[in-house]
Amino acid sequence: MTASKRSAGAAxxxxxxxxxxxPVALPVAAVSAxxxxxxxxxxxxxQLVAFTPWLAAPGAAAVVLAFAGRRRWQQxxxxxxxxxxxxxxxxxxxxxxxxxxxxxxPLVAMTINAELGGADASGIVELVRDRHVDLLxxxxxxxxxxxxxxxxxxxxxxxxxxxxxxxxxxGAAIYSTYKLKEAGVLPGTQFTMPVARLExxxxxGTSLRIAAVHTLAPVxxxxxxxxxxxxxxxxxxxxxxxxxxxxxFNATYDHHEFRSLLAGTGGSRTLVDVAASxxxxxxxxxxxRGYRLPGITLDHLVTSPDIRGSxxxxxxxxxxxxxxxxxxxxxxxx
Length: 334
Known about the structure:
Blueprint: H1 3-36, H2 43-49, H3 56-69, H4 72-89, E1 105-113, H5 121-130, E2 135-139, H6 143-151, H7 154-157, E3 160-164, E4 172-176, E5 180-185, E6 194-199, E7 207-214, H8 223-234, E8 243-248, H9 256-263, E9 272-273, H10 274-277, E10 299-303, E11 307-315, E12 324-331
Helix pairs in contact: 1-2, 1-3, 1-4, 3-4, 8-9
C-alpha cells in the first residue's frame, strides 16, 4: 500500500470517528446537563439521570473517538464530559459522620421492598437470622406477606413491630428485637410510611427514631408526588437524636432531590447515606429481575451524623425486583 493510500485511509477513518462522535457524545451531554443543573426537570430527565453512573462507558468512548477524529473542539467536549462523569462517580460532597460519632451501640438494620408482597418470606427470615438483624423495614407490605412472615418465624426473631399492611404497594412495617413505640405516619404521602421510636438497650435512655420509607416512583403524573414524598421524608428529622430513614426512596445519589434531603435542605441536619459513606453507593439494588435495565441504587439506609455505618451489603431475595440492603449501625449513646 502506498503512502497516499494509507493517508487517504487514515483520513476516512478520522472522518468516520468525527461523525460517530456525535451520536455517542450527545446523549452523555444531555443527561450530564440534567445531572449538573439542580432544576425541577420533567419526568424523562429525572428517570434518565438515575442512570448517570452508566454514562462513564460512552463518555470514555467519546474521548477515544474525539482524539481519533482529530477535532480539537470534540476533544475538549469529550474531556469535559468524561471529567464530569469521574466527578459524579466519585463525588466530593458525600457527607460522612464525624470521627467522634463512632459509637458503642451496634444495631444491624435491613430494608427490603417486597414488590406487592411477593418477596419470599422464608428468604427474608433466613436473611434476618443469618445476618443477626435487629431492625427490619419492609415496604409493599401486604396482609398476605404479614401472615407468611409470621409462619416463617419472623416473630420469634423480631418480636416487636409497627405494621400497616395494605393490599398492593401501599403498606409498610418495622420489625425489631427491641421495643417499638409508634409515632404516627408521614402525612400527605401516597404510600404509608410509619415512624417509630426504638429504645436502645444500653441503659443510656437513648432512642432511635425510624421511618420506613417508600416514595412514589417518578413516572407519568407522579413526579410532583415523588418530590413531595421526598420532602416529607426530610421533615422526619427533628434535628436531635439518632435517626434512621430506611427503605425504597425511588431515588439515587444523582437526583438533586435526594442530595437535597441529605444536605438538610429546609433547616434539618445533614444526613448520611450509609452506602455512599462506605464507598458502596454504586452497588445496584434494582432491578433484580424483570426489567432489562442497567442496575441502579434506589434503596437506602440514611442516618443522622451521630450514627456510623459498617458492614454494608446488598442481598438478593427471591420474589422481588428489589434487593435487601443490610448494614451495622453504630449509634452514639447519650
